[in-house]
Q: What sequence folds into this?
């Protein structure tokens, strides 16, 4: 789970007579991740088996039909699956049928659509000419007169008059423009044409027809008959599609498989008599792989382990249980882990829903998200959607859990003092009685000031923990690839530095009274009182001291607390290690890079968003509940329907924000604050030669 | 008179509240300015390739950390003086 599956490199070598057989076996095993080879003096890349060209021709035809029918093998789910023999026995006749029936129909539809377009074009020319009201035979075929027929923006007659008086113009408005016919003597034609062009003249070719109305009705009747024919053909195709799509996709799958098999030589090296395939397989499958290949070829083909020395990069096969596997969508969006790296998916699978719930934390919204995810899971069946919706499901459940802790269901029912539950929530009293076991208080009240304080501390603690964890994982990754010393200088030093930082934050929190201030009803004390070594903290009226500077409070020891004492040596060790790592690389100026420690401080603070985003959504919900209750039940004038509309819209908006923001921020806390410490990625995903059949049995 | 006012509890509380508000508000403006550029670029990238949507949204929220800093400061102010 933590690490990608262990891989071994193998070679499959044999005589070329057995190549096709081996290709079948390897494809069936679906185990070997083939490494694309480089040609050498004696070994060249092979050429596809003979059958390949026939298969790819059929495949192209079939796929173009599938594309027309909008049948996507990725998105379509078969109602029944076919046996390979069934497909093989029918494939030739069926392909012929598809070609002649479907192909011909599709071809005919395309022809008809072309014809339709030509007719529409013609109609577009005739209609304005009809508006002009001059028969077509009078618009052309003159010897001494040049007619200009077309569209124009403005009346050009005053300008034409500047050239000649002997002209005739017919102008009718048509849409935003005019349709125009100008007749001039042929000797003025060039001048007039120039003038017309100045007014944006577009000439129209006058068609060879006798009468506009006759032609228009001809065109229209032809268009309706074409449209009817297209409709008929489409319904016929639709019928075939409904009947045949399972089989068509099964044939497509079969052909693709055959094509992949026959293209194996392109990914292997061959000499005159020998072929040579190199790739990775999971270590635990090696014996099975070797046995199967060697026994089925009577030992004519051998499988050997290849020892790898030095730097090598096998493909990464993620081995996660199904719950964690859903989260691969999120972790591999960032990067594919390299073979030697820790696969962070499982950490994400724990913390992503946890963070989501911690932020949203509302029974009502959580239940809605769960329900929506369950509903959408029945509609969107593709693998990616299913995974995403599963994540939505887990996040929803986690929100319900935290909502129960926070006592929120479409908003809080306890907000400060002086407001009764029924004042701030539509069913506040019901919620209050639900929490009767805790004196009508939520188990953890995050709206109240102590709750905010405690949650801020908790989120920062999560931040510290995750940063340290990240550096620890980084230490491990670097140690595996480059050795301990490198790991200590690159990641270990930051681990120590951040640990020092964490103790400073803890010390500051202590001074703020996080550990020993008495919580209100319903909270337990977070830590025992005796952690503080120099007696209890005695600054007047509980004001905190921001830094452990001796003398800031009475008596030097008053300002010193144990966390600060622990932080000091850690920071010193960090600084020494850091200087050792940076100075050889960057020179003395490298020390300046030490300010990066502040970045990590910022990243720890960044986890406070777990609190902040939650609070924002709580107050949104509270405001909408309070507002609409006041609108709905004021003494005198009740506008309940408006109140309910506002309530629904408000909660809808809050729900949308409540899905988007916690999701994104939770993702971001992983990508930016956590993954950057250890996760470099850039691995190659394990893609074995073979496929999992979807339409075939 | 003025000295008395400055020393008074209400004045300190009021200043802390203004400070807290400024911390969040100004940080918000800063984050918004930062996000505007990223958001525009992300939308451009999404227009080219719908698959970029997730990553684009993610990039867009990155400067939000600044608001969180402001928020933490305001919390600390409110805890200390509120």
A:
């Amino acid at each position: 789970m933590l690490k990608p599956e262990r891989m071994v490199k193998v070679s499959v070598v044999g005589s070329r007579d057995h190549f096709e057989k081996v290709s079948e076996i390897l494809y069936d095993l679906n185990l070997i991740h083939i490494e694309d080879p480089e040609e050498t003096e004696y070994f060249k890349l092979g050429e596809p088996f003979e059958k390949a060209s026939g298969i790819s021709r059929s495949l192209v035809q079939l796929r173009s039909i599938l594309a027309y029918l909008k049948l996507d093998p990725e998105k379509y789910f078969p109602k029944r699956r076919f046996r390979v023999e069934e497909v093989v026995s029918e494939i030739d006749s069926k392909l012929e049928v598809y070609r002649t029936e479907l192909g011909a129909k599709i071809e005919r539809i395309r022809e008809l659509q072309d014809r339709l377009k030509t007719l529409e074009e013609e109609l577009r020319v005739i209609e304005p000419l009809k508006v002009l009201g001059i028969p077509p035979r009078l618009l052309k075929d003159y010897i001494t007169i040049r007619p200009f027929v077309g569209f124009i923006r403005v009346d050009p007659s005053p300008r034409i008059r500047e050239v000649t008086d002997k002209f005739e113009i017919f102008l009718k408005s048509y849409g935003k423009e005019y349709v125009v016919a100008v007749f001039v003597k042929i000797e003025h034609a060039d001048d007039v044409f120039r003038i017309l062009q100045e007014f944006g003249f577009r000439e129209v070719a006058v068609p060879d027809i006798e009468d506009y109305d006759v032609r228009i009705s001809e065109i229209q009747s032809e268009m309706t008959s074409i449209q009817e024919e297209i409709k008929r053909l489409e319904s016929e195709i639709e019928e075939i599609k409904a009947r045949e799509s399972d089989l068509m996709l099964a044939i497509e799958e079969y052909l693709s498989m055959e094509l992949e098999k026959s293209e194996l030589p392109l990914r292997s090296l061959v000499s005159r008599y020998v072929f040579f395939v190199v790739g990775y397989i999971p270590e635990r499958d090696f014996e099975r792989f070797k046995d199967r290949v060697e026994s089925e070829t009577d030992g004519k083909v051998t499988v050997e382990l290849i020892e790898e020395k030095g730097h090598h990069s096998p493909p990464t096969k993620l081995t996660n249980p199904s719950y964690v596997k859903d989260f691969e969508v999120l972790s591999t969006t960032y990067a594919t882990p390299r073979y030697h790296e820790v696969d962070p998916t499982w950490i994400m699978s724990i913390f992503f829903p946890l963070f989501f719930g911690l932020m949203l934390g509302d029974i009502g919204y959580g239940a809605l998200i769960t329900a929506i995810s369950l509903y959408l899971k029945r509609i969107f069946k593709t693998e990616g959607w299913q995974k995403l919706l599963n994540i939505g499901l887990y996040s929803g459940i986690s929100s319900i859990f935290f909502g129960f802790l926070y006592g929120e269901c479409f908003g809080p029912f306890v907000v400060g003092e002086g407001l009764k539950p029924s004042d701030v929530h539509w069913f506040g009293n019901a919620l209050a009685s639900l929490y009767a076991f805790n004196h009508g208080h939520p188990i953890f009240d995050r709206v109240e000031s102590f709750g905010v304080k405690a949650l801020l501390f908790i989120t920062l603690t999560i931040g510290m923990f995750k940063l340290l964890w990240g550096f620890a994982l980084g230490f491990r990754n670097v140690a595996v690839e480059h050795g301990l010393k490198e790991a200590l200088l690159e990641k270990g030093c930051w681990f120590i530095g951040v640990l020092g930082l964490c103790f400073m934050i803890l010390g500051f929190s202590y001074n703020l009274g996080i550990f020993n201030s008495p919580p209100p009803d319903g909270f337990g004390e977070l830590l025992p009182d005796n952690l503080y070594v120099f007696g209890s903290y005695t600054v007047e009226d509980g004001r905190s001291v921001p830094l452990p500077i001796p003398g800031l409070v009475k008596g030097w020891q008053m300002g010193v607390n144990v966390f600060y004492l622990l932080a000091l040596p850690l920071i010193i060790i960090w600084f020494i290690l850091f200087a050792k790592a940076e100075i050889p690389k960057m020179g003395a100026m490298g020390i300046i890079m030490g300010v990066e420690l502040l970045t990590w401080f910022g990243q720890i603070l960044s986890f406070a968003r777990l609190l902040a985003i939650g609070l924002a959504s709580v107050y949104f919900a509270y405001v909408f509940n309070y507002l609409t209750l006041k609108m709905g039940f004021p003494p005198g004038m009740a506008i309940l329907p408006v109140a309910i509309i506002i309530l629904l819209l408000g909660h809808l908006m809050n729900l949308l924000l409540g899905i988007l923001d916690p999701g994104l921020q939770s993702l971001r806390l992983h990508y930016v604050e956590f993954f950057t410490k250890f996760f470099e990625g850039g691995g190659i995903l394990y893609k074995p030669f073979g496929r999992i059949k979807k339409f075939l049995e | 008179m003025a000295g008395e006012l400055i020393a008074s509890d209400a004045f300190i509380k009021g200043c802390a509240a203004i400070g807290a508000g400024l911390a969040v508000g100004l940080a918000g403006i800063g984050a918004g300015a930062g996000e505007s550029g990223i958001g525009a670029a992300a939308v451009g990238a999404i227009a080219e390739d719908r698959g970029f949507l997730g990553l684009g949204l993610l990039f867009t929220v990155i400067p939000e950390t600044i608001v969180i800093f402001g928020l933490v400061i305001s919390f600390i102010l409110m805890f200390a003086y509120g």
About this structure: Chain B touches chain A at residues 54-55, 57-58, 61-62, 64-65, 67-69, 71-72, 75-76, 78-80, 82 (CB under 8 Å). The domain at 13-81 of chain B is CATH 1.20.20.10 (F1FO ATP Synthase).
